[in-house]
Amino acid sequence: MTEPQSGEQLRGRDRRAIVVVGGPVGLLSGAAQFLSSYVHSGLQLLVTSGVVVAAGLGVTLLVVRGWNMGRRKVLLSINLIVLIVVALVAVGLLGGWAGHKIGVYAFPEPTPSSTPALTAEPVRSPSPPSSANPTPSAMPSSPAPVRMPPPPVSPKVVSVACGAPTSARPGQTITLTYGFNAAGPIVVGLGAGLYDTAGGDHANGDGDVDEASLAVGGTVKTRPFTVPPGLTPGTYELVAEVWPANQIGEGETLAEGACGALVVG
């Protein structure tokens, strides 16, 4: 049989039990509540469950200890358990409140007023060239209308007429419209001449077509023509030239047709 213990010994053991069990459980509860203010619900549930298990173990130890001290001390043990549970709840609530406050002030959530919105800088379109320094057009001009030529006179096999703009700038690309009247199917080359008043040809072959298929009768085709850069301003005669296929500039033309005067400036 165990010897009865004095009141002083019981109070000493109770104090040690509260310190040994209640202290760590209280700290663990406060830490769990502090961490729960930063984590998502799943981890928070896990941590809180751990605290509850630890608290349950501590309460169970105190209950067993109370029964071991004798029936007369059960009431005292229950009172101690209630006090410890209340203390744990208070510590947990205090720790959670402190953790929430620290999280709010230490890591504030961004607000629309404090976070500047990123906006795309508008794209500025280049200003059009001034008349004092014009930029030649890289795209051909719109096709000019053309009247169909009369049928070729033998021994000619094709006749040609031309439509073209009446003015252009050096380096500008314009569109020439050729109208053909062929006696039979034929493949030809499309050239052009740009003649000054002395008869000199300034065309550089830019835009010439080596092979163009013509059907019997009337056919209309267009081609680009680039006014040579650096050409002296003035009035030139623009002429459509039909050559044998792949022989532009070699031998004699098959047909020629005046496109009209072209003012370059």
Structural class: alpha+beta
Helix content: 25-40%
Shape: rod-shaped
Order of helices and strands: HHHEEEEEEEE
Most strands sheet: 5 strands, mixed
The average pLDDT score comes to 73
- Number of separate structural domains: 2
Structure characterization notes:
This protein is an alpha+beta fold. It has 2 domains: 9-106; 158-264, Coagulation Factor XIII, Chain A, domain 1 (Distorted Sandwich), CATH 2.70.50. Helix content is 34%, strand content 25%. It has 3 helices and 8 strands; from the N terminus they run H-H-H-E-E-E-E-E-E-E-E. It has helices at 7-36, 41-68, 74-106; strands at 158-163, 167-168, 173-182, 186-195, 209-214, 217-226, 234-244, 255-264. The strands form 2 sheets. It has a 5-stranded mixed beta sheet, with no helix packed on it. It has a 3-stranded antiparallel beta sheet with strand order 1-3-6, with no helix packed on it. Helix 1 runs antiparallel to helix 2 (41-68) and helix 2 packs antiparallel against helix 3 (74-106). The longest helix is centred in the middle third of the chain and has 33 residues, at 74-106.
Summarize the structure.
The protein is of the alpha+beta class and 265 residues long. 34% of the residues lie in helices and 25% in strands. The termini are far apart.
